[in-house]
Structure formats: C-alpha cells, structure tokens
C-alpha cells in the first residue's frame, strides 16, 4: 500500500496537489520545487519540511516563551534553554554543553582533539594525534 495515496504535498487544506506514489513525488520535485528555489529534495520524508521553507509556516511552538520553529528537533534543542539541560559532557574537564557542536568546538580548541564521528570525540594522544589530525584536514579538504 502506498503511503502517499491522496495526500496533499504540504498538508494544508488549500493545497490542491495530491500525490499517489513516490514517482509522483519525484515528478513534483522536478517541476515545482526545482523551478521555485533550485533545490532538489532527494528523500520523500524531507518534502514536507522543505515546503515549510516556502510557506513560512512554523508549526512547533515553545509553550514556555512562544517562539515557533519549523522543525521539531529545533524545538527540542531550544527547550534545553528553559530546562537548563546540558547533555553533552567533556570527558577531559567535565564541562557540560547544550549542543553537540559546542562540545566538538570545545574539544578542538581546548584539548586539540580531532572530532569526527569515526573517532567518537575522544582526545587523541601521541603518537597518533598528528596522523589523525592530518587525516581530519585531508578529509575536510576532500569534502569541499
């Protein structure tokens, strides 16, 4: 059974675009989205979130301060401001951070760590640190 049967693209009551299959989604993206913003959404699951960029809708409100967000994950991250939660901890100096990116930055700047998912945010020691730092730099250049 196709989960896209008779669903509107944006979910809004005024949306006239109905999609019945993933092929229809691809056709829609190739015409409407591509011509609208020169963006290609490769996964069907990201289509609705992408459409929110064009509609300006922010369906996820913070019940504490009223700020609205386009993505649920952004709201969850924002809620840490109100709760004071800091789930990411530096194992070297026991500092706590609200966001993973803050921990990665701290590890690089304060402890000379090479931070990527393969190394799992560990602080590297000699003699491997120079080799892995070179690996990190080369892989960053290759991604450009």
TrEMBL record:
Location in the cell: Nucleus
Transmembrane segments annotated in the record for this chain: 25-45
Gene Ontology molecular function: any one: DNA-binding transcription factor activity, RNA polymerase II-specific
SUPFAM superfamilies in the cross-refs: beta-beta-alpha zinc fingers (SSF57667)
Primary residence: nucleus
Sequence ranges assigned to domain C2H2-type in this UniProt record: 60-87, 88-111
Keywords noted in UniProt: Membrane, Metal-binding, Nucleus, Repeat, Transmembrane, Transmembrane helix, Zinc, Zinc-finger
A GO term from the CC aspect: nucleus
Gene3D superfamilies, per the entry: Classic Zinc Finger
InterPro entries tied to this protein: Znf_C2H2_sf, Znf_C2H2_type
Pfam families: zf-C2H2
Alphabetized PANTHER family for the sequence: B-CELL LYMPHOMA 6 PROTEIN ISOFORM X1, ZINC FINGER PROTEIN
Protein name listed in UniProt: C2H2-type domain-containing protein
Organism: Oncorhynchus mykiss
Lineage of the species this protein comes from: Eukaryota, Metazoa, Chordata, Craniata, Vertebrata
